[in-house]
Amino acid sequence: MIRRLHWFLALLGCAGTMGFGVYSGWPGAAGFALGAIASWWNFRRLRAFVNLLGTPDSTGLLGAIAWSLFRFILLVSGAFVILKFTKISLPAACFGLFLSVGAVVLEAIFELTYGRTRNLADPPL
Hints:
The protein is an all-alpha fold. The protein is built from four helices and no strands.
């Protein structure tokens, strides 16, 4: 499932970058690509964070809050740089940030369409 999510992220990222490139030129394509890369990075970090929850190496609530604050500051700083110093399209970058949501929706559709049905009494696969 996670591997398929990465494929959906790559597929949507390429399609969106080409679409914004056709629609609004290189500033749109670059903006969407940057947003898509940030979305992919955020997806990987969230996955690693969720995998660490409850383990002995976990940083606890304070570490989770600090990491979330760091990610937010990094995102706002990137948006400021895009707005202030480049011609890259900020709306396209915002669309790219929602790439993980699109990949999860595609994964849900895939699972609903092609997922195996099983008895709830059966152990998970």
